[in-house]
Amino acid sequence: MSLSLNEYLRYGRQLIVPEFGLQGQISLKESRVLVVGAGGLGCPALQYLVGAGFGTVGIVDHDTVDMSNLHRQTLHTTETVGMLKCESAKLQLAKLNPLVQINTHPVALSQDNSFGIFEQYDIVLDCTDTPATRYLINDTAVLLGLTIISGSGLKTEGQLSILNFNNTGPCYRCFYPTPPPPSSVTACSDGGVLGPIIGIMGVMMALEAIKVVNAECAIPKRET
């Protein structure tokens, strides 16, 4: 696979990064990434995945855009309130980079459909906020041998994990074998979150996806 002149012009600034280069860009073009959740984490992650030039980007989300989402879910606008989040996101992402194939899956992820969706992709970003969905994403990805990039954010803090890396690293159940009681989990709607916190985590998830796809594209270690 090669790059077109349009792609050279679009991705030129990352092509000249020594740890990335032409092969790094081609690897992105050949890769298919699935983002589960087009909310606070998913929106910034999607913007940078599509901007970077992943060949195929899938979006799973059955929810609709609400006015309360707009302070942190930056792909959605006042005009798209009431629209399916995956379709609202696709609308903006297609404008950002028409060279990327964007697939939407406007369904609630379940045991009945997760395998059929996940097997179309090479890497999964877990941008959800409910334990049950996180376990479903984990179990499906592990069965298919997919790396999971998992993020979260609440109040003024965020977390990021790389799970089942290359189908050899620890997975979510390795750390938390059983789901916690629902009453012990604080949702964003209850605890709140600052928009930039969740935005930073989403961007970091996109960066980790680039690094997972390109094993050689590592941030150099600082000299001590």
From TrEMBL:
Keyword annotations of the record: ATP-binding, Cytoplasm, Nucleotide-binding, Nucleotidyltransferase, Transferase, tRNA processing, Ubl conjugation pathway
SUPFAM superfamilies cross-referenced by the UniProt entry: Activating enzymes of the ubiquitin-like proteins
Domain (THIF-type NAD/FAD binding fold): residue spans on this chain: 11-215
Entry keyword annotation includes Nucleotidyltransferase: yes
Record carries keyword Acetylation: no
GO MF term set: ATP binding; nucleotidyltransferase activity; thiosulfate-cyanide sulfurtransferase activity; URM1 activating enzyme activity
Cellular component annotations (GO), alphabetically ordered: cytosol
CDD domains per the UniProt record, alphabetical: ThiF_MoeB_HesA_family
GO biological process, one term: protein urmylation
Domain of life, source organism: Eukaryota
InterPro entries: ThiF/MoeB/HesA, ThiF_NAD_FAD-bd, Ubiquitin-activating_enz
Subcellular location field: Cytoplasm, Cytosol
A matching Pfam family: ThiF
Name assigned to this protein: THIF-type NAD/FAD binding fold domain-containing protein
